[in-house]
Design a protein that fits this description.
Elements lengths: L9 H11 L13 H19 L6 E7 L13 E6 L10 E4 L2 E4 L11 E7 L8 H19 L3 H26 L24
Antiparallel strand pairs: 1-5, 2-5, 3-4
Helix pairs in contact: 1-2, 1-3, 2-3, 3-4
Length: about 200
Amino acid sequence: MSSTIGTDTELSAVNSILGSIGQSPVTQLNTENPEISFIYNIFKEALVDVQNEGWVFNREDGVPLTPDQNGYIFVPVDVLRLDISKGQSDRSTNVVKRKGRLYDKVKHTDVFANPVTVDIVRIYDYEDLPSVFQRYISYRASTRAATQLVANPQLVQLLGQQEAIARAACMEYECNQGDHNFMGFPDNSNYQTYQPYSVLRR
């Protein structure tokens, strides 16, 4: 007999949080219920907080943003954070988000004549996240919910341990999927190490 494991949804995450604090599961996300609305808000906060750190699955480098006919560069609504590419070495431009569009703190203007290349961190729906991050978000929200709704320090401590284990799994995912290297070379680049036998060619 074959079995299919369904993907996590916002409803299953909310039910996991409710179960962690000893509450019954629900069949739908009825935000008119004060308790469900409170739990759902905690879940959404954890969803944003985790993704705001910038992981390999939602971090994208070298994204060009083109100004419109007025010279404004509007920041997409799914962008949590952004910074000018190679911002540590290029001090001629320093951009931030103001009023929904890019603002250059060096030139003191939000009008750009040329496209700007930025590194961004995007936010995705819960269903589109890797499973390890889904689990981490639900555990993190569970710990917060237990802290605010349940007067049980032991429960908070146990949920905090689960949260720590889930974060460790996320770090393992980051290291495996990130293709990081000791020298810090970016994607789409390579470095030929020194080969001792090359001396013999001279």
